[in-house]
Design a protein that fits this description.
The chain has 208 residues and is mainly α. The protein is built from 4 helices and no strands. The longest helix has 103 residues.
């Protein structure tokens, strides 16, 4: 390994140590360990450390084909220590600002979607429902008007002439037939009244 390669390797490992410190703080910030179950935090820790090891080895492979030397670990520790002493506080402040900005943008996006998409769609839906109800009510009123008009004309055209015809026929019928018909009508009316009274009594008893 040439001196230039060794120098590049040292610089790359110092940078990797700084990057590792930043990624560790980022991971701890988003993990929210006190609110996580222990087994979930354990699995996340394993995945994080495995990913960091692979990333550092990939950087090492790019600079010196993956040759491991003792000074590589020293360079990693120096980079991590430099991050802890010089960069950590600034990075954490910047990270919090970025998180707050991201949350603000998320809320802004949600409000924009609500104002530009959700509310117009719900308003259009309510308008369509109102139009359907209005049209349905209009159709019902129209059908009621048509029914009343039809009944009026049926009464004029059919019932009144039939009533006059039956009244004329009733006048020319024999008196004996009239009396028999009246008795039959009265008996039928009385039977119907008794039946209705009995039905009301049965209904009241079932309610009690």
């Amino acid at each position: 390994m040439t001196l230039t390669t060794q120098f590049i390797t040292m610089a790359a490992m110092i940078a990797s140590g700084i990057l590792f410190g930043a990624m560790l703080d980022t991971y701890q910030r988003f993990l929210n360990r006190p609110k996580r179950k222990s087994w979930i935090a354990f699995i996340n820790d394993i995945l994080f450390w495995a990913a960091q090891a692979l990333l550092i080895f990939y950087v090492l492979y790019l600079v010196n084909k993956g040759e491991i030397r003792f000074y590589i670990f020293i360079a990693l520790l120096c980079g991590f220590a430099a991050y802890q002493a010089l960069i950590k506080s600034l990075y954490l402040w910047l990270l919090e600002r970025l998180i707050q900005a991201g949350m603000w943008l998320g809320r802004l996006f949600a409000k924009t979607v609500q104002l530009l998409i959700f509310k117009p769609v719900t308003g259009l839906f309510q308008l369509l429902v109102g139009l359907v109800l209005l049209i349905g009510r209009g159709l019902l009123l129209l059908l009621a008007f048509i029914g009343k008009t039809a009944l009026f004309f049926i009464r004029i055209i059919l019932f009144l002439p039939l009533k006059k015809i039956f009244s004329l026929l009733w006048k020319v019928l024999p008196k004996g037939f009239k009396k028999s018909a009246e008795k039959l009508y009265n008996s039928g009316t009385g039977l119907l009244g008794k039946t209705m009274d009995m039905w009301k009594r049965i209904k009241n008893r079932t309610k009690e």
